[in-house]
Amino acid sequence: MDLGIAGRNALVCAASKGLGKGCALALAREGVNVTITARTASELERTAEEIRRAAPGVTVQTVVGDITTAEGRQAALAACPAPDILVNNAGGPPPGDFRDWTREDWIKALDANMLTPIELIKATVDGMMERGFGRIVNITSSAVKAPIDILGLSNGARSGLTGFIAGLSRKTVRRGVTINNLLPGPFDTDRLRGTATARAAQSGRTPDEEIAAIAAANPAGRLGTPEEFGAACAFLCSVHAGYITGQNWLLDGGAYPGTF
């Protein structure tokens, strides 16, 4: 299927590895020029070279910086001031017990996983509407549907973003701009390995044993891959997805047990 987005420009946040990288690769393979951000220059450049090899006809720009800071956002938008596609992504806050979290911990989580996406949307959505085309995809978490006890900071911040998007996405779609959320379940990423390490400290098992248990418990019998996550993102960014907005797409191998 031709997604109809060749030649478009995308800003993909936190894209040096994991799910952000999967999204950037999938978009580039569809002919989209990508600007990718991350905090670590070496990892970012390795990913950029990988994308260039996979999609030699596209332009790949890198922006080193922390997208959750004003400086990081300014640098990203300076490199890609008028994206047609925006993929919001940022590392989640650490696991733990809410009794141990301070107000500063909560503010940091909200800044990273709620307010940063909103700031980037605010900076780009009007231009998208003026041009008559835009796709915004927020990478959130399956915890929005089924909260994970040790990820309370993430549960709260990402749910706040979800509520905001539910309202805004109904205002932009008439102008050709869709806004949707992708909710990853257990994917083979550094984030999952961090969660497994935290659980291992409580269970007495090794992190690898925890990861194996997570995979075995999933109805699919495995973890998801960044490549299949990226493919879902690319479709949401396509010309074929213009009638999909304000949705929360759960990619979890069937782990969420609900009907709705």
TrEMBL record:
<keyword id="KW-0560">Oxidoreductase</keyword>
<dbReference type="GO" id="GO:0004316">
    <property type="term" value="F:3-oxoacyl-[acyl-carrier-protein] reductase (NADPH) activity"/>
</dbReference>
<dbReference type="InterPro" id="IPR036291">
    <property type="entry name" value="NAD(P)-bd_dom_sf"/>
</dbReference>
<protein>
    <submittedName>
        <fullName>3-oxoacyl-[acyl-carrier protein] reductase</fullName>
        <ecNumber>1.1.1.100</ecNumber>
    </submittedName>
</protein>
<dbReference type="InterPro" id="IPR002347">
    <property type="entry name" value="SDR_fam"/>
</dbReference>
<dbReference type="InterPro" id="IPR050259">
    <property type="entry name" value="SDR"/>
</dbReference>
<comment type="similarity">
    <text>Belongs to the short-chain dehydrogenases/reductases (SDR) family.</text>
</comment>
<dbReference type="Pfam" id="PF13561">
    <property type="entry name" value="adh_short_C2"/>
</dbReference>
